[in-house]
Amino acid sequence: MIRPYRPTDLPALYDICIRTGQEGGDARPFYADHELLGTLFAAPYAWLEPELTFVVDDGHGNAVGYILGTADTPTFVKRFRSEWLPAVAGRYPPFLGPVPTTTHEIMVDLLHRPERMLVPEVAPYPAHLHIDVLPDHQGAGHGRALMETFLGALAGAGVRSVHLGMVTANVRARLFYDRLGFHEIAVADPGPLTYLGRATS
Predict the structure, then answer these.
(1) Rounded distance between C-alpha atoms, residue 199 and residue 46, angstroms
(2) Does 146 reside within a domain?
(3) What are the pLDDT digits (tens) for 57-89?
(4) Residue 124, Cβ neighbours under 10 Å: how many?
(5) Burial letters for 156-195: b for 16+ Cβ neighbours within 10 Å, e otherwise?
(6) Which of 43, 75, 104, 186 is most buried, by CB atoms within 10 Å?
(7) Could you tell me if residue 71 is inside a domain?
């Protein structure tokens, strides 16, 4: 079932994020620190906007999937820098080398550059989201149910459109988003990502 996030779900959010962090597959072999990805892509949303965080409950109180995000990306970026980053920078100090090369260095560099989320071409889609479901629980309709719940919450708050950035190589994820009515947003310099957007209702 889909239910609102509870603070006791936080360890599961970190776990789900790393176990789906390599183009939808397990990223644990690529990171010595298994909480780094969650520090970037999951925990700050649950911390800053818990009302927009929902989980798949396995029936025993355990979160096995989530959707989370923000209703207003520019405001989230400001809060990420002023509230979230000071809370985690001691564990993940800024990368000081010339160019990050390892996966750890690259993610730490991203952590300290939240303004990267301010992509001009997606400004008409002010909300954004991240969604992940553990492999053993995929294919049961949980992803669609999570998305419908999240979009409904945005629409109820008066937010009319949402975007996401997905790794272009993750073809399976793209098919999922296409089925849910997302369309590609042309971005001048997308890097390894494809940006998708849709109306919330």
Answers:
(1) 23
(2) yes
(3) 999 999 999 999 999 999 999 999 999 999 999
(4) 11
(5) eeebebbbbbbbeebeebbebbeeeebeebebeeeeeebb
(6) 43
(7) yes
Helices (H) and strands (E) in the chain, counts: 8, 7
**Cα separation of 64 and 2, whole Å?**
10
- Look at residues 97, 129, 130, 91 and name the one whose alpha carbon lies nearest to residue 111: 91
Gyration radius from the chain CA atoms: 16
Q: CA 62, CA 150: separation in Å to the nearest integer?
A: 19
β-pairing, 127-133 vs 54-57, is unpaired
User: pTM for this structure?
Assistant: 0.96
Range of the domain at 133: 2-159
